[in-house]
Amino acid sequence: MNNIGFLAILRRDLLLAVRYRGDLANPLIFFFIVIALIPLGLTPDSKELSEIAPGMLWITALLASLLSLDGLFKDDFADGTLEQIIILPQPLYFMVLAKTIVHWVVTGLPLSLLAPVLGLMLSLPETGYLPLMLSLLIGTAILSLIGSVGAALTLPLNKEGILLSLIVIPFYMPVLIFGSNMVVLAVDGLSIASPLAIMGALLALSLLISPYVTSCALRLSIYG
Amino acid sequence: MMFQFENFSDFIYMAGHGQYVWTAYSVSLIIMAFIFVMPLFRKKNIIQKIIKKNH
Amino acid sequence: MKKLIKSSQQWVHKMASPRWFYQISGRWLPWLSLLTFVSIIIGVIWGLGFAPQDAKQGNSFRIIYIHVPASFLALVGYYIMAISGAIAIIWKIKLADVVMKSAAPIGASLTFIALLTGAVWGKPTWGTYWIWDARITSMLILFFLYLGVIVLQKAYSAQGLSNKAAALLALVGTINIPIIYKSVDWWYTLHQPATIKFTEAPSMHPDMFQPLLIMIIGFYLFYVTALIVSMRAEIIFRERNTSWVKELALNLKDKRPI
């Protein structure tokens, strides 16, 4: 019975995302532009670039994901749909999970797939491509989940954009640490098992907790 | 347990570390005094506003 | 038995009243302030002038008497803020909300003091004002956590909304603190530069430890006193339209309010 609501929200949000295709490209364009800026601002030297590549790719992907968080609930909040979703008999947990999954499919997933191409631009060694994609796939999922909490908490506020970033960044830091480390280890030819395991654990933890906390935050935002 | 310095100017100089120690201590203590005193002024302001409103 | 339950319920109910807290704290505050002031002064003088200097770090070691208590209280203060926030949203006790609102800036300032004293201590010890070691980095992240709660609080109250979202944020932060600490620790051991061996706080001679203990107690007292002073101002503000506050104001008209 829970599946019906979950699938309905999933389908609806995916449909909306496809219809408003224009917004989809924004995180990708941001990712692309910033990565292009890095050699210009630092150095064109291949060897030096390859050293900073894992971290830079990860940081930029994180920022791109962060910037797209704003729109997660905003449109539905503005036209009253969110309130309707909250008072549905289905548990809010699954509704929120559905929205978050769509957010990830629309931002994190494309970012992760684009990353190896941008890695090429930063002279990332070939051994790093697959771990980069894998770490970003898992990592952006965690970021979407954690970010949804921040998006829900700042929902009723007249947006001064930096507030959401400030709230969410401390929670992003462990993900960044382990995610970029996974790529660095792979580039050095070492096993990525341990950061991978930790990322998996973080994903499991956030899957369990984040939608629940976000539901509480949404109820607070709407009902005060 | 005795005083660790020969004289007062030694105390200030602290074998070259004086600027660090004194900066750290004075800035910290000033901030702490600030935290303590600000709410006192805030309360005074509120009380004065209440008095003005009711008289 | 029933009478016992009823009277303890009444006691809890009374304790949760801001007015009761204001009156009780008014009686204790002068003594607490005096005790705070005395212990900090003793600790400072002892640490600055009478404790022996460190064999390796010399006199800059004396900064420890501010740095360690501040860091300690910064961390404890975060939990105080989060727990009072939790009590406020779960049991809807007004006083807990006041505690949380007051605890936030005090904790943030202590974190700032810890970072500042750490940086100043670093210069003569390692030759640099900033160093990305596990402890300092964790303290920096704690500072961001505090800032987030404070900014969220201000944004909500600017629109006349309640404090609950900030309380929720603080709560989520408490889950995060152990995760952050562990991950930063791990990150640092991976990247620890071979040249700089971060020495742990030197194993302490009792002559060095005693003033530290005094300062830790003094900082604890400072935290409680600063919290109470801030809470009293906040309570008067929130209850400014009630009759007991108006009466209080008129009584204080001729004397200087404390």
Describe this structure as you would to a colleague:
The complex is a heterotrimer of chains A (224), B (55) and C (258). Chain A has 224 residues and is mainly alpha-helical. Chain A has helices spanning 2-19, 25-41, 46-67, 71-78, 81-86, 92-106, 108-121, 129-153, 162-187, 193-223. Chain A contains ten helices and no strands. The mean pLDDT of chain A is 90. With 55 residues, chain B is mainly α. Chain B is rod-shaped and about 60 Å long. Chain C is mainly α and 258 residues long. Chain C contains eight helices and no strands. In chain C, α3 (64-91) runs antiparallel to α4 (94-126) and α3 (64-91) packs parallel to α7 (206-238). In chain C, 41% of the residues are buried. Chains in contact: A-C, B-C. Chains B and C meet through α2 of B and α2, α3, α4, α7 and α8 of C.
Q: SSE order of chain B in H/E notation?
A: HH
Helix/strand-derived category of chain B reads mainly alpha
Radius of gyration of chain A: 18 Å
Question: What's the rounded overall pLDDT mean of chain A?
Answer: 90
Oligomer class: heterotrimer
Order of helices and strands of chain A: HHHHHHHHHH
Question: In terms of topology, how is this protein built?
Answer:
The complex is a heterotrimer of chains A (about 220), B (about 55) and C (about 260).
Chain A: H1 2-19, H2 25-41, H3 46-67, H4 71-78, H5 81-86, H6 92-106, H7 108-121, H8 129-153, H9 162-187, H10 193-223
Chain B: H1 8-13, H2 18-53
Chain C: H1 2-15, H2 18-50, H3 64-91, H4 94-126, H5 134-158, H6 164-191, H7 206-238, H8 243-251
Helix pairs in contact in C: 2-7, 3-4, 3-6, 3-7, 4-5, 4-7, 5-6
